[in-house]
Amino acid sequence: MDHTQSIIDRQPYGRFHRKLFLLSSGGPFLDGFILSIIGVAIAGADEDLGLTTFLEGMVGAAALVGVLVGGVVFGWLTDRVGRQAMYTIHLVVLVVASALSLGVTEAWQLIALRFVAGLAVGADHTIATALLSEWLPSNRRGRTMGALVAMWFVGASTAYFVGYVVASSGGDGAWRWMLASATVPGVLLLLGRLGTPESPRWLLSHNRPEDAREAINTAFGRYPTDAELTQLSESEPPQSARLSELFKGGYLGRTLFAGGFWMCQVAPAFAIWTFYPVILGEYGFEDGNTALLWSVVVSLVTLAGCLPAIRWVDTYGRRPVIIWTFVGVAVSLAMLGLFPGMAAALAITMFVINALSLGGGNILQYIYPTELFPTHIRASAMGVASSISRIGAAAGTYLLPLGLDTIGLGPSMLVGAGIAAVGTAMCVAWAPETKGKPLHESAAVGPRPTAPETVKVP
């Protein structure tokens, strides 16, 4: 029997996979929507709630801190109690937190609700990515997980568009409706996810072969044979989830790589996305609602950068895509930093190159963490990597306006270029090639577990 191609890897990409992708992509969509809509709503909240500069920063950072905490906590919990159990519970929290935004009257209430919404988003990073990757055949895993990341930019673009429409229509408390609008996709996603089968890989890693049989039948319309289930179980021996595994042995380097490259991507990216109106103003563009439209355009260009890279990770490989997209980000930011007085048309060209490169590289954010760690710690690894990245995102978002005030536009862009250069060096040194490998092979470090630990199929 071929021990590299399980029943999951041999299954043609079909209706079940497409549905699971659609439902899983709702998480990145909501992530992009929730983290972007606050940039539009903050002006109205400032006027109604009388926010100080400190409180504005707290409102902006609350969701990022929530994502950081949610990734670690719910990643570990998802590895312990299962993907299916967590696949819908956290969405209830997100829907309630979004709906309660309509009743905000104090700054602390807004900060608390943004933090709770961030917790739910951080949870979904770990839950949906682990579940989807564990159901995908190896020959479609790269492009499908990459497309999952692309939905972040769809959510961000939608948020800017919704914000532009609501802001243009005016009205008292319009910002509350902007924040509460996440309730609609949240409810639809919650209803759609009901009844999704558990990951058979997770079930086998918890010594539940009969439940794995039922899950495979629910997904593919047939029960696996004893030989097929035995083959899959040999790659998923029962093991307990220990968060400490991520920080020792062969997995320590993988944890540092997964979180490190992700942080180097988002630290300059989130700062630029958050303050695009300010930055574009430095290059001679208008602010106000026109800047919101530019933000939509930039999000769509970043999304466009995702599309060819989704194919390239399965044709050229993960390693060349992540290295060369980092180079594109570093070069474009260096040009913006070295020549801050460049013509507006040339500045836009550099921002387009930057956005295309960011989009292409960002699709690896969900691919590498799910491929480099085994089932029993996969969600935990995703959560830790996501949380490390949010440290960079929060730092970049906080420091960019200070940099613009103290060292100026050019040096601030050069700092971003330097971070991208560090990411390039990190990927040249550490990025592995996992294209086409079954999950148990790409995640393997050291010797395989001994035969007695293998699930015995009745």
From TrEMBL:
The keyword Disulfide bond does not apply. It is found in: Cell membrane. Gene3D superfamilies: MFS general substrate transporter like domains. The chain crosses the membrane at residues 20-45, 57-78, 85-105, 111-133, 145-167, 173-191, 256-279, 291-309, 321-339, 345-368, 380-400, 412-431. Residues 20-435 form the Major facilitator superfamily (MFS) profile domain. Its main location: membrane. Residues 439-458 are annotated as: Disordered. The keyword Acyltransferase does not apply. Keywords: Membrane, Transmembrane, Transmembrane helix, Transport. It is a multi-pass membrane protein. Pfam families: Sugar_tr. It comes from the Bacteria. Belongs to the major facilitator superfamily. Sugar transporter (TC 2.A.1.1) family. This is MFS transporter. The lineage of its organism: Bacteria, Bacillati, Actinomycetota, Actinomycetes, Kitasatosporales.
